[in-house]
Amino acid sequence: MHTPSPPVQPVALSEIQLRTHKYQVGETVYYTSPTFGRAAATGSYKVVKLLPSEGDDYQYRIKSSGEAFERVAKESQLDRA
Questions:
Q1: Is 15 helix (H, G, I), strand (E, B) or coil?
Q2: pLDDT at 81
Q3: Around 36, how many Cα atoms within 13 Å sit in the side-chain half-sphere?
Q4: How many domains does the chain have?
């Protein structure tokens, strides 16, 4: 026996919260290295690329003017400079 489903109310677009990256390419951020694993240089970095999220935490490719390489940092490791 089939039971009819209750009607579904349409959701207004304004009710859907789309989460986006907090920082943008070119923005200067302050990076705090994690307390575990390899220690990294904390300090000011420039966001060079937005990366997909890892769970609930967006990721960024960041670059310091004092280093020859780029790092990947989670949004939770960054603050506005």
A1: helix
A2: 85
A3: 0
A4: 1
Sign of the alpha-carbon dihedral angle for 35, 37, 40, 44? negative
Q: Which two tokens stand for residue 15?
A: 């009710």
Q: What is the mean pLDDT of each run of 10 residues along the chain (81 residues)?
A: 66 59 96 72 94 90 94 94 85
Return d(Cα 57, Cα 60) in angstroms, integer.
10
Can you give the CATH number for the domain in which 39 is found?
2.30.30
Model pTM above 0.85: no
Select from 80, 28, 18, 27 the least CA-distant residue to 53: 18
Domain that holds residue 64: 22-80
